[in-house]
Amino acid sequence: MGKTYERIDGRIRTFIEEQHIFFTATAPLDGEGTVNLSPKGVSGSFAVIDELTVAYLDFAGSNAETVAHLRENGRITLMWCAFQGPPNIVRVHGRGEPVFRDDPRFVELLGHFPRVDPASHGLRAVVVVRADLIRDTCGYAVPFMSYDEDRPLHARRFAREDDASLGAYFEKKEHIATSIDGLPGLPLPLPAMPRAEREPAELKPTDQEPADR
């Protein structure tokens, strides 16, 4: 049976920080609009900010549906499920906001991700989610699957881009500045990465480094 939690701490926090992948679900307000579901990986790109707030790094890709939906209505659900160990599924239902490169909060937020070089993945934003509902369920039907390692392909693809070429890449994509349903997506032209973020060693460390995901 599912259980509701008041905060993200204890075994719930430990569980989500140990997972190597999680999923995000968003949708536009229009009932005929396109529901979006995205997998999120890259070890170290997720962080628990406090007992009701989590954040993850939004990397370069060929669309920006999650960003567009959050800009319109803020609704988001994050889900983690156990592919190893005891069965478990955790969902955080809440309100999210994409914090872009030119936002004054951007540099401070990146301090929660000291193990990720933001220049290697074409970082677009930090998505911050405030939890409204935290629940777990059994996960009995989730299969066992083993984790080997992160794929290196994303970093290899985008590490060679600078601000100008990355911005040009986004400009060419049909559903970056505008979502599938015509909502505003990633603001373009792409702002330059703040100087402090080009030197990962200068990032402020977190009080507690998350486990490998």
Could you explain how this protein is built, in words?
It is built from 5 helices and 8 strands. The radius of gyration is 17 Å and the shape is globular. Strands 1, 2, 3, 4, 5, 6, 7 and 8 form an 8-stranded antiparallel beta sheet that branches. With 213 residues, the chain is α+β, with helices and mostly antiparallel strands. The longest helix has 10 residues, at 163-172. The chain has helices at residues 10-18, 65-72, 106-110, 153-158, 163-172; strands at 3-5, 22-26, 36-40, 46-50, 53-58, 75-81, 89-100, 125-137.
Shape: globular
What is the number of helical segments per DSSP (H or I, 4+ residues)? Answer: 5
Number of strands: 8
Termini separation (Å)?
26 Å
| Alpha-beta classification | alpha+beta
Mean pLDDT across the residues is: 91
Biggest beta-sheet profile: 8 strands, antiparallel
| Low-confidence sequence ranges | 197-213
What is the N-to-C order of secondary-structure elements (H for helix, E for strand)?
EHEEEEHEEHEHH
Strand content: 25-35%
Q: Percent range for helical residues? A: 10-25%
Radius of gyration: 17 Å
Could you provide a short overview of the structure?
The protein is built from 5 helices and 8 strands.
Features of this protein?
213 residues; alpha+beta; eight-stranded antiparallel β-sheet; 5 helices; 8 strands; globular
Write the layout of secondary structure elements.
Layout: E1 3-5, H1 10-18, E2 22-26, E3 36-40, E4 46-50, E5 53-58, H2 65-72, E6 75-81, E7 89-100, H3 106-110, E8 125-137, H4 153-158, H5 163-172
